[in-house]
Amino acid sequence: DTGVSQDPRHKITKRGQNVTFRCDPISEHNRLYWYRQTLGQGPEFLTYFQNEAQLEKSRLLSDRFSAERPKGSFSTLEIQRTEQGDSAMYLCASSPLLGGGASRTEAFFGQGTRLTVV
Amino acid sequence: SQQGEEDPQALSIQEGENATMNCSYKTSINNLQWYRQNSGRGLVHLILIRSNEREKHSGRLRVTLDTSKKSSSLLITASRAADTASYFCATDDPFTGGGNKLTFGTGTQLKVEL
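^ Those are the sequences you sent over. The predicted structure of the assembly is below.
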């Protein structure tokens, strides 16, 4: 396993269409995060999974956004009825849950999916 | 929302020079991390400094943390062209049920010229 994998790398869609992105985390990592990054800004947190449970969602995640992580492995992020303001880089990250209550907080990021809504 | 600001927004230096980037944040923290991002790519973790640490080194990287001023600095010594990238600081807010939300600054774009 060489790292976090995201697919597709680039997506161009027409306004109003639905899009779905996939993230495959590092295999032993229980924790999975989605972030969104617009040009010239740092990434902003969207949502967090621990195994299959979605434990946190940002207010940035409107009703048109939904994320899943079935079986606690890969995750998908779907955007319905895309708008031009959804154009951004969508980044997935994962981190391990260590034993004994310890946790590593540094995240391992994928290469991202760049979404362009035209 | 962004946790803090980074300064400068852009920095251009010659290969071999040192590069210093500063980060300010707003709330109390458990730790502060620095990440690098090459153009259009994902982020790579560089170094983590805990709130009870004042300085940390890793290879050519030196990070300082001043919790009283809510600021951190990243120093890259003897820079190389390959160091050209955007650099982000990030603070983490632990979730009650475990896991950590990273809150990133706005980033410094570093360009190292030959």
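Chain B has a mean pLDDT of 91. The first strand of chain B starts at residue 5 and ends at 7.

Shout if you want it in another format.
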